[in-house]
Amino acid sequence: MRQIKFIAQKEMYHILRDFRSLIIIFVMPVMMTFLYGYAINMDIEHIPLTYVDKDNTPESRALIDRILKSGYFFLTPHSPELSDPDQILRASHAAGFILIRPGFAKALNTGEPFELGLIIDGSEVSQAAAVQSYSNVILNQFLLDRLPPETTVPGVKLSQQVLFNPDLQSSHFFVPGIVAIILLMISALLTSITIAREKEMGTLEQLLTAPVTPTQILIGKLLPYIVIAFLDGLLVLIFAKLLFGVPFVGSFPLLLGFELIYVTTALSIGILISTAVPTQQLAMQFALLLTMLPTIMLSGFMFAIKNMPIPLQIISRIVPATYFLKMIRGIMLKGSGFAVLAPQAGFLALLMILFLFLAIRRFKTRIG
Amino acid sequence: MNGNAVEIDHLTRKFGTFTAVDNLSLSVGRGEIFGFLGANGAGKTTAIRMLCGLLLPTSGTGTVGGFDILRQSERIKRTIGYMSQKFSLYPDLTGRENLSFYGHTYSLDKSTLKARIEELAELLSLSEFIDRISGRLPLGWRQRLALAVAVIHKPTIVFLDEPTAGVDPVFRRTFWKLLYDMAETGTTVFVTTHYMDEAEYCGRISIMHMGKLVEIGAPRELVLKHRASDLEDMFINLIRPQGVTDAAN
After folding, report:
1. Model ipTM?
2. What domains are defined for chain A?
3. C-beta of residue A266 within 8 angstroms of C-beta of residue A291
């Protein structure tokens, strides 16, 4: 036990004396949150749109007004002489335009069928899809609002309601995932170089002739980094919350508790990598490769796990972010409590023990 | 447990097809100062690393302090002190922090450790430099510090791999005086060196060449046996590539 304490103390000296690295440790996660947060923001807003209003009635103008004021679009005007749809799109650089033929106001009042035109530039697929769905929603709301009160629309009506993220804002979904990726990556990076550095500098040679066991060395090295990674996590969470305004429904202390388990698991991965590779550079590359890719592809960050082939689903079980994502999304967006998330925490703790056990087994007390 | 500090029996270490240590057998008594000589690449460091438990032999056996080098390396670590050829202390820690860290790994208690650090600082004239970041010390002082770390826990056997390389002559003398003092209190000193004048300070020396032990004995006896003018002369003759004759003779 005393040995562990002194190894931890020594490791703390290394961390605190390397001032540049210390800055990187705290600046990098914040910068990454910022960059990833904006880069992966999937909400498409501020789409250029134009219109051709041949009806030119108060009703048609109201519809256009409604669409443009929805917040998703802005108007890019085009010269009124143009009539060819291709030309209009090209001249206005719009993602699409709305064509209101004469008779819109009349059809609205009499209820006869009427075809409203929406011409979309299909070359930008995701933007086109957004134009389609947004304008559909807006049009439906517009039509519903115009129905006189107390009247009912005949036929079956589908009532849609989205819970937890009512606007289906992707940031609410992605920001917790970004937090999960950054914490995993940074933590694994931190510890991945610790033993590799001692190998590279030759200090391991002296350490290995001293009567310390692999368990003492690895646990001693791990402890100071738990503090650092935990603080990093706190920083990233606060920053993400402030920057992206993600709602926070559940208990913050509970999330911090889970964060502690999560970063310790990530640090254990770093330690495991460190025992296996000879140089710091290689250690860092492995740490990035082994944390980023599986987290993005297999943790449920981008793709739903239940839609994956069975082998990938099994692999997702040993990706720590799989569990942390459920925790952080659960706590932040749904307000889930400890009882609901305890199994996730249990699995995560098991993974941590597994990685540490493997690292201790792998750690060679001999050189060469 | 036998009486010898170091006992090596047909020790061999190969790296791929290269045999660094070839069938090495020797024994070193307790309290002896044993000079382990050989040209660069002769296999000295590899042999020392095997004795300290840092490397496993390809074949052969050995004991250090009576403990088996294959199976009891943890017990050996408590018995020995080791000074590497290359500076292996933490360069970002001060001398005192390095000494204190290693002292603690040997479970020395606080007051014993403190007194021991003062004692060593005095013996090695390190006091002035002990609170400086060790990586920034001049080579000579780094070597003193490394020696201090190797003996912080008063080991019964010390392995010193080129301890005086790059150290000035005045300090080499201090170094050796310290080794003599240690040997007098029963410590076994197993030391490699390039300096032939230092080899003469040793009770016995061995000479390794291309992984093999070519000669072992007391320095003076060896000089007589080989009818050499001095140790250096004998050393050069022994390790000269076979078939090459010295034109001057």
Report:
1. 0.91
2. 2-41+170-362 (no CATH), 47-146 (3.40.1710.10)
3. yes
